[in-house]
Design a protein that fits this description.
Blueprint (H helix, E strand, L loop, with lengths): L1 H29 L10 H23 L4 H26 L4 H30 L2
């Protein structure tokens, strides 16, 4: 389990760097007028929330397999609530960057969700016979 967690963290760090570099490239070459200074905060924030939720789910799975589904659903509800709060606060404080921020957030969210689902499916495959 330790090795798979390290690999997961490595994948999240790599994804964060790739998304940040790709975003800079897109903003620099394709959409220079849409760049907003807090762009690197988006992948870093998603990295932190995804990693914390993954740690919580790993611990929840170790305690009681029967309650894992309920804890998973609860964790996803909390995660969505955190994301909505982040969106509201950012959009309230920086309305002039609303469109590029939302597009960046949704693209990064999709990438992090894909990595998370793949990792959870691998964990489930190992746990269930």
């Amino acid at each position: 389990m330790r090795g798979s967690f390290g690999k997961y963290v490595f994948n999240l760090v790599l994804l964060t760097f790739v998304l940040t570099a790709t975003g800079y490239g897109i903003f620099l070459f394709l959409l220079p007028g849409w760049y907003f200074p807090l762009f690197p905060l988006v992948p870093v924030f998603l990295f932190a929330v995804t990693l914390l939720m993954h740690i919580y789910l790993l611990r929840a799975g170790e305690r009681n397999d029967r309650k894992f589904t309920a804890r998973y659903l609860g964790a996803m509800g909390v995660k969505i609530f955190i994301y909505i709060l982040f969106l509201i606060v950012f959009l309230f404080l920086a309305t002039e960057y609303a469109v590029p921020f939302l597009v960046s957030f949704l693209a990064c969210y999709a990438a992090f969700t894909l990595v998370e689902v793949i990792a959870l499916l691998r964990i489930q495959k190992r746990i269930t016979p």
